[in-house]
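Hi D.,

Good news: the full-assembly prediction came through. Inputs first.
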Amino acid sequence: MTSAVAPLPARRRVRIAPVALHVALVAGALIALFPLFWMVSASFMQTGMANQYPPHLVPRHPTFAHYREIFTRLSMGRFVLNSAIISLLVTGVSLFINSAAGYAFAKLRFRGRDKLFRGLMLGLVVPVQVAMLPLFLLFKEMRLINTYWGVIIPSLASIFGIFLIRQYTLDIPDDLLDAARIDGASEFRIYRSVVLPVIVPILATLAIWTFLTTWNDFMWPLIVLSDQSKMTLPVALANLAGEHVQDTELMMAGSVVTVLPVLLVFLFLQRYYVQGIMAGSVKG
Amino acid sequence: MRRELTVEQQRARAALLFIVPALVLIGLFFLLPVVASFLLSVTDFDLYALANVHNVRFVGLHNYAALAGNSEFWSAVANTFYFALVGGPLTVAVSLGAALLVNAKAARLKGLFRTAYFVPFVTTLVAVAIVWKYLYHPTYGPLNYALGALGVKPVDWLGNPRWAMPAIIGLAVWKNFGYNMLIFIAGLQSVPEELYEAARIDGAGAVRQFRSVTLPSLAPTFFFVGVVTMIGYFQLFAEPYVMTQGGPLKSTTSLVLFMYTEGFRWWRLGNAAAIAFVLFVIILAWTVLQLRLERRRA
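Then the structure:
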């Protein structure tokens, strides 16, 4: 991260005394992590322990009972499966659709290309909620309400995804593509064997981004999925929270199960994710 | 024999194949519904129309006129602006503060702190909203306990109309500052070191350097972060849906929550479409305003 160019003078840019700086850094980290720590901790507490005064920070007799209950009586496994199917399908398919379009907007010449792209960018200002009411009626006609496809289809192409890929693809040298053309490669072949391998880092960023947003998405799945057996985790969790207001420990276990998959995806792949976001913003 | 296409034509045809899937999906499932939403907003589409489309009537701007006389709508507008205008700048300020801390030259374990600060952003909003609801609990919540240690009397965060929106803003800042922080770090790292050196030679102290070098260099970053944050914040929905159901006394009913209730609970879709359009206009106007300010500055 820090560039080691020339030795800098002893007095640096920000002269916060190092001790105060680290106190602030640690305090910030505590605030950022405490809610998640408490969520995990309370999920292992005996029933009722999270609702005591003074509050407990750690369970006295840790128990798995709440996890057992959400997976048996509340059939949380079903919701995990629904979320996984929808998120993985959206991520896999949208990656091809968005990368193909982003590449074409960056590197292939056709009439009206730049106008079309600018028009598409205007769509970023339109709140998705505006589309939701007619989309609901359309999907009702198409019998897609209460199906996975009703959640999946509107997410398969994303203006943001196309934008991200285009920004990155602009840097591919034209010579590289022309060389492949001279060798007689078809445009699709070039996309598959030349372009895709070069843009793997941004594909990884977009894949993680898409997976996280789809997994965490709430409003549209809430509208489309009313049948319990089809619900994604956030929808089911919001439902349960209404019925189990008093069962703090149980709800914390449900929250852990909902958050854990995305947290793991992020922690294992954060290198690709964080760099992509930072690079995209600087260029954008 | 196939007709030979020129290279240009071949490439244009390939380009078409590459963009058509995306354009069809976006056109059919986003653009078309947005246009249809306006049409919906000038009808009285409701539960009866849902059962039989022939019950729909054109009502002109009646839905909009009705909203103008609806106090619940105006309070939803006010709540949405409260959340966006207080929560937005607060989030940006906290993000910048975190970026400065993590990016400080003397800071150790930068990667670790950056990850810790970013983690809330990747979590599921519904799940952490439920967690925060318990953190805010008036008697058993850790927040009131910690404040009690400082001598502050217990606050009924989500049960008091005065405190419910600030409580929701607290969750939103915590959840979202990490993303903007990353963008600010990227911005900070692209400020040329020579600028700081020149400022130091001119005798500028840390505060002066921050005001005369850091802030001006970050202006494009501020613009980007500001636009993205405000567009997102005007769409407030899940936090009040999960934590307060829009209460107490409608103090946290946002425009989107109001639209959702009208449209998908009472099935007054014409009315809900009008609300959605008002939101659209607000976001568009706000973005144009920010664009204008940015142009004047640049």
